[in-house]
Design brief:
By secondary structure, this protein is mainly beta. It has one helix and 24 strands.
Length: 296
């Protein structure tokens, strides 16, 4: 998520079997390896990466549909960041939003019928919206003067976690019901640096998110009600865009130093065994990885 005060800029070959449905872990991630940010599909170790978008525009924030057949993403190919959707192999790209203000960070409802996203009203006040998966009937869920962004749909489809500056001391994690009610504060101190990007564990019992640790940004996890907060990474720099594997055993995330492009890392869900799997290719804003859902 962009820091409101600092205005940060927008947390090979491939075997055919990799793009097919199945149980093999597969990751999406944005990469600039071909000269600009495109969406790549790769094995869980980062190998065998294939460019799915191959477009001159910036394509970022990939998100799998629950059935693994579609990928939503953000692109500025019409001059403004809007939301698009494509087949899992990169075919049949369709534009979902046609706003004059940036729309980004899509997240699918568990039934695949709706998409939540962030829309920057007036260019500066982001709000959480939800729309049908075909782009119709967009509704504002937050409608608050504060900076509300980074939506993440809960696995049971009943709640959305998001980051907000409404606490007045930086960005905290909140959870609300999908009908806009019952807004609950999950973290009790603000992260002044941004890039929060909350993410639910597959069983809905935990939330991973980025928080400030001194002058660095590290990934933390807590219970869904905010209890038992634990720091997972101690890498320094900026660590963000946590993404749980479908079995809940791994977390993919982005690590960056200074203003350099981010690297894709993988660690165990308890924070151990962190390792770099793609080096210095991910955009600082929008470099969110996404795991392909398990075949059902």
């Amino acid at each position: 998520m962009r820091h409101l005060l600092l205005g940060l800029a927008d947390c090979f070959t491939l075997a055919p079997a990799l793009a097919a449905e199945g149980d093999e872990p597969v990751l999406l991630f944005p990469s600039n390896r071909d000269g600009n940010n495109d969406i790549f599909l790769a094995k869980a170790d980062g190998g065998g990466a294939k460019n799915l978008t191959k477009h001159a525009a910036d394509d970022i924030f990939p998100a799998w549909s629950p059935d693994g057949k579609k990928i939503a993403f953000t692109s500025d190919r019409d001059g403004v960041k809007n939301l698009y959707v494509m087949d899992a192999d990169g075919a049949n790209v369709k534009q979902l939003t046609k706003e004059k203000e940036d729309c980004r960070a899509p997240t699918w409802s568990p039934d695949g019928k709706r998409i939540a996203f962030c829309r920057h009203l007036g260019g500066s006040n982001p709000e959480i919206y939800v729309m049908n998966a075909d782009g119709s009937n967009a509704v504002n869920l937050t409608n608050d003067d504060a900076y509300d962004a980074d939506p993440a749909w809960s696995p049971d489809g009943k709640k959305i976690a998001f980051a907000s500056g409404r606490g007045g001391d930086g960005f905290r994690v909140y959870v609300m019901d999908i009908d806009r009610g019952n807004v609950q504060e999950i973290t009790t101190t603000g992260n002044p640096l941004g890039y929060v990007y909350p993410a639910w564990s597959p069983d809905g019992k935990k939330l991973a998110f980025t928080d400030a640790a001194g002058a660095t940004l590290e990934i933390f996890a807590c219970d869904a009600d905010g209890k038992n907060k634990k720091q997972l990474t101690k890498l320094g720099g900026a660590n963000s865009c946590a993404a749980w594997s479908p079995d809940g055993k791994k977390i993919a995330f982005q690590h960056s130093e200074g203003e350099a492009a981010g690297s894709l890392y993988l660690m165990d869900a308890d924070g151990s065994n962190a390792k770099e799997i793609v080096k210095a290719e991910l955009p600082r804003e929008g470099g969110r990885p996404a795991w392909r859902p398990k075949a059902k």
